[in-house]
Structures are given as C-alpha cells and as structure tokens.
Amino acid sequence: MPSFADVQTSNATYAPSYVPVAVFTGGTSGIGKAMAEAFARYTKGRAHIIIIGRNRAAGEAIIASFPKPTDTKDGWKHEFVSCDAALMSNIRSTCADLIDRLPRINYLVLAAGYASATSTEKTSEGLDRQLALRYYSRYVFISSLLPLLIKAHESGQDARVMSVLGGGRGSSYPVDLSDLGLEKARSKTFGFGAAKTAFQSPGYNDMMVVYFASKNPSIAFTHIFPGIVKTPAWQTGLDFGWFFKPLTWILLAILGPFYVTAEFCAEHMLYALLDREKGVFFRNDTGDIVGSHVFDQSHLHIYDSDSDSPTYEKKGLIDGTPVAGYGGSDMGVRLLNLHTEEVIKT
Predict the structure, then answer these.
(1) What's the DSSP call for residue 229?
(2) Which of 74, 110, 149, 248 stands 20 to 30 A from 275 (CA)?
(3) Strand partners, 208
C-alpha cells in the first residue's frame, strides 16, 4: 500500500505530451468533483476536462476554479455538460454530442451515483433509480463512448475507464442471476429491494468491466472501491426515514471516525486511474490492485456464446482463471450483458 505522500508524488509526475481529454460523470459533487479538481491541478489546467452532471451552477463554479494555462492555443478546454444520468435517453443524447465534437477520450470516470436504504423509486423510463445510476447509466456511457476511447488508443495515447463503486469486494455480494434487474427483490417487504440493490450493484459493475475489457483488451477497465468517503451520497444512503432517524444518527456517529474526505480519496482514485496497465482491474480504496486479468486479444471469449466449459458457472473466475476480489462468473457476464442490452434498448 503506497503512502499518501507517495500517491501525491506519483500523481505529480503525470505530464503527457498531448492534451488529455477526461470526462467525469457525477463531477459536481463528492468523489467525481474531487477527482476532476485533482486532475485539473496536476495537469495545471492543460487538459480538456468535461464535467457531466445536473447542477450547472455547481459545475461552472468548479470549472472557474481550475488553473488556466497561459497558452490559449494549446487545445485545452474546461466545460460543463448538463445531463441527468438517471435517464438512458439523456445519456445517449449527451454521448452523441460528445462523439460528434471530440477527437478522442483518454479517461472516462464514472462516479455519478445514488444510494438509498429504503427507496425503490422508478425513473420515467421504468428503471429502479438506484440501479439506473449505479449500473445501467455506466454501461450506456461506456458502450456509447467506446469509439472515442478506441481512437485515443489508436493514437498511441492512454485509454482508460474507471467505475467508482465497490471494486474488489464482489465476492462478498454475488449477483443474483435469477433476479437480474431486482424486480423480485423490490416486490418484497420494506427496504429489502433497496438494500439488495445497494449491495449487489458492485457485482453488476464487476461483470460490466469484465465484459467490456474482454471486447477491448487494449483499454484499461477498472472498478474501484473508494472506501467510506464523507459525501452527501453517504448520508442519503443511510437515511432510513423519519421514524428510524435515530438509527441514521447512530450509524453516522459510528462510521464518523472511518470517513475520509473526498479530496483524500480522489488522490488514490487518480493514482489508480493513471496506472499504465491494460486489462480489467479491481482495486481498493488506496488504489492497490486486488485482482486483475489481461485478455488474449486473439481469443474468442466465451461471453459470445453459451459454453460447455466446466468452469462456465463457477464464481470468482474470469475466462476460467481465478481472480481475487471478483465474485462474478463467465455465465454471469453473458447473462447480465444480455439482460442489460434488452433493458436499455431504444
């Protein structure tokens, strides 16, 4: 585990020869905001930074605080893009605009999220709001923006995707493949569906990054656990309603000593993002690799079709290889991908 000083020193060495393009979803608060700010600081503003979120005033205030290079012809740019990521139609529209006007994307950071211990609210598109923000939206962002990440790689530049949620912990909460989308869970008693969504969505992200990495082995896909971070989302996630408000206060008091600030967390997240490895990675709150797998570019992966492999259904394996911190299975990757493509289709 690197010390915090070592992490900062490593981040400070980042000095690409080109102007990097970095997209941060959920960039107006919490971890996403802190990562965008850290990236701007280490690049001294010499980057094309795109913050995607709902709060324009907050986004523009963050951008105004970024350092501004003196060379106005260097290609750097800082911008806010308005998008409610709970709706897949909004994401598609936003991504279509980015595809039209960006030459490439070097870093795609997915940090927009929502947590609730009680709510099973649905969006206007009929998706569970929590699962929409913690999983489906991330899938749509990646699948839509892949052409720009591929262009970055083809230009000899970094091409990396990071999903910030619960990497390296999937083996603790394996996905229920008999209830993908968690409709059955939400039909049960108070709070059960919301809690199951919160616990299983990291497993959805695990299998999501495995799927995309298997199809794009030259791009790094990371699912990372940020730790217990003092953000508005944490307090929302521990809100059990007015009747159980004392329980919320107790939990917040117990967890208080373990919280880190978003700024502290962002240094470790950025440290992991700037790692030059390729493949699929599961990382912890200090940016250390818990488990990883590099795909053979010439191999036809079993996610393309049903398999008679004896390890097809076994959890904790990627393409038949055991990977620490991973709770999915090759069958799970295929089934989840089929489910997701059906859910998000237009």
Answers:
(1) B
(2) 74
(3) none
